[in-house]
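Task: sequence design from structure.
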């Protein structure tokens, strides 16, 4: 048996093992890109990520602030990218039941101590925002249906403005400040947009040798099944007396007297949940986030930083070149100059071209490292240019 036959046989066995393992799995799921169907009465998992700010890079755990806690909500496993970015995903203290409308649910009543007030004050001053997640979709203050109305009028060139000057369209703020007085968002009105689940067919297939074996299952029944296509929030600061009154309207709660906070005050947290049928399909639900007007680029600061970096690089290169030229000139003057005691990098000059103990392993490690570094920098470049979808 020749080397080519052995290689072909090994490849066929490897492909067969992969196909066997794929056949034992229910589906290949990529987080954020695989539709999840829900029916009437299903429990929806609402998670909360770490609080973030555009002012500072420091993130905080949601439950480190004086918010309502939830027993039994375990920590959610984050991806490696989320972990490096400071993401700390936990179960949120909200309970959603699909298609069950809730006009007002009281979460808890929290007494704010001195440390809690200091934490809230810092979070408000530094513009920290709460990031909730439902079905891998971040909560937003933007109107998804309004955006698609703009798409019909202006086409793909439609640009969606943010609701405030912070250019933050994901999540909602902790509260605000009026003079020396601070207020908090203590009532949240959620709107969950849903649409009919798209019909789909489950297929299985694998390639072996020169043939293709494909097994097609029956069409999946999606009747009375729905996909979540939007997750919106209207944060409100409402005085406790108004919040407990019968005239409280959770869908128009932005004009009520605010709930101011200070050390020793009692804050009542509550929320409402509404469900709206939308024409947005599951594959379109990320479109509003891709057409939001971004934060303006500070080109002068960018060019200043680039110019300083280039000047420093030229300075270091000139010093290094001058040093190397002096050493080379000394070596060219004759044996008397070479007999001087070498220092610095010249001590290892003889080891530069010496063969390492394991050249194959060294080449493998260097090649893998260069590939990972190239992928990293290319990905960062695409992210900086805004060419990568948030689904990825």
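Answer:
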């Amino acid at each position: 048996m020749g080397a080519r036959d052995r290689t072909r046989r090994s490849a066929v066995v490897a492909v067969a093992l992969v196909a066997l393992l794929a056949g034992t799995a229910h589906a290949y799921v990529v987080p954020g890109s695989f539709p999840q169907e829900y029916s009437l009465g299903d429990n929806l998992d609402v998670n909360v990520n770490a609080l973030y700010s555009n002012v500072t890079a420091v993130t905080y755990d949601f439950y480190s602030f004086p918010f309502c806690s939830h027993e039994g909500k375990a920590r959610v496993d984050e991806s490696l990218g989320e972990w490096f970015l400071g993401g700390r995903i936990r179960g949120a203290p909200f309970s959603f039941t699909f298609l069950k409308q809730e006009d007002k649910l009281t979460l808890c009543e929290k007494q704010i101590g001195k440390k809690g007030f200091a934490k809230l004050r810092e979070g408000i001053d530094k513009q920290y925002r709460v990031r909730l997640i439902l079905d891998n979709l971040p909560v937003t203050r933007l109107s998804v249906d309004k955006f698609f109305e703009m798409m019909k009028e202006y086409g793909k060139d439609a640009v969606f403005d943010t609701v405030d000057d912070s250019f933050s369209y994901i999540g909602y703020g902790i509260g605000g400040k009026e003079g020396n007085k601070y207020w908090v968002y203590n009532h949240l009105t959620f709107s969950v947009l849903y649409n009919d689940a798209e019909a789909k067919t489950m297929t299985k297939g694998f390639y072996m040798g020169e043939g293709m074996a494909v097994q097609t299952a029956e069409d999946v029944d999606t009747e009375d099944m729905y996909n979540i296509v939007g997750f919106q929030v209207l944060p409100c600061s409402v005085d406790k007396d108004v919040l407990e009154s019968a005239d409280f309207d959770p869908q128009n709660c932005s004009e009520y007297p605010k709930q101011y906070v200070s050390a020793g005050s009692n804050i009542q947290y509550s929320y409402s949940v509404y469900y709206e049928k939308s024409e947005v399909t599951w594959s379109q639900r990320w479109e509003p986030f891709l057409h939001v007007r971004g934060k303006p680029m500070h080109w002068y600061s960018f060019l200043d930083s680039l110019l300083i970096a280039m000047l420093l690089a030229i300075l270091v290169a000139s010093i290094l070149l001058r040093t190397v030229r002096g050493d080379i000139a000394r070596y060219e003057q004759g044996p008397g100059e070479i007999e001087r005691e070498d220092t610095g990098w010249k001590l290892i000059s003889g080891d530069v071209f010496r063969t390492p103990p394991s050249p194959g392993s060294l080449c493998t490690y260097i090649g893998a490292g260069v590939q990972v570094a190239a992928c990293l920098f290319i990905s960062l470049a695409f992210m900086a240019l805004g060419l990568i979808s948030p689904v990825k």
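The first strand starts at residue 43 and ends at 44.
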